[in-house]
Amino acid sequence: MQPYLVQTGGNEKDALRLYRWNLELTAAVHEVLGVTEVVLRNAMDRELQAWNVKRTGRSGSWLLQEPATPLRGLTAGKRQSALNRAQKEAGRRAVDHPRHGVPVSHDDVLAQVMFGMWKDLLPNHHSQASRSSLDNSNRRLLWEAALKNSFPNEVDPEGEKAYWRVVHIHHLRNRVSHMEPLLGIDVGDRMREAFALVRSIDPAVAEWVSGISRVQDVAGRRPGR
């Protein structure tokens, strides 16, 4: 409660009102970020799958089989972790589940991929990142060969816009997932980035998700303002 008590000058009732408001704002933000993550992962996965088929000559899943380099090295541990989680979930299916006993699919594993992996596949434009490092060279290679096609409605030749939007959204997603206060975060600006990211992939979906978003309404009801 300390951050809320600081904001309210130690008034416990006002701090509780602010805490409850933060819960509402967190839920509203989570709705937008959930859709954003699904749209992003589906768009990037589609291009990576097509690229991998072309590179390997195999039609199998890049998440279930070793993909071509450099995708293999960039995702090795994260792919395995996602596969492990998917297999664990499959093992928990009840006997009456329609897919009981069915091996995990590409989509099962895709649903278990952590948001951070998508960020770590985009060219790193942080000021301290080395453009010539092997990791970043591989990211740029993948961007040019496949991932830039994930964002057909944006002029972004180096992937800088996509990178920073995903970085900022990833940071916000971690905050809301761990119930950290949003008191000092410009949530409106982050939502604009989320809408812009979705719009770069699919303008119709961006219009839909911005239309159902409750963030602006909840943010405008912050207690004490």
Determine the number of helices (DSSP H or I, runs of at least 4 residues).
10
**How many strands?**
0
Radius of gyration: 20 Å
Shape label? globular
Q: Hey, roughly how much beta strand do the residues contain? A: under 5%
Describe the sheet with the most strands.
none
Runs in which pLDDT lies below 50 for 5 or more consecutive residues are none
Gist?
The protein has 225 residues and is mainly α. The chain has helices spanning 2-7, 12-56, 71-91, 106-110, 115-119, 134-145, 160-177, 187-201, 203-212, 215-219. Helix 7 (160-177) packs across helix 8 and helix 8 (187-201) runs antiparallel to helix 9.
Set down the secondary structure blueprint.
Layout: H1 2-7, H2 12-56, H3 71-91, H4 106-110, H5 115-119, H6 134-145, H7 160-177, H8 187-201, H9 203-212, H10 215-219
Helix pairs in contact: 2-7, 2-8, 7-8, 8-9
Which keywords apply here?
225 residues; mainly alpha; 10 helices; 63% helix; globular
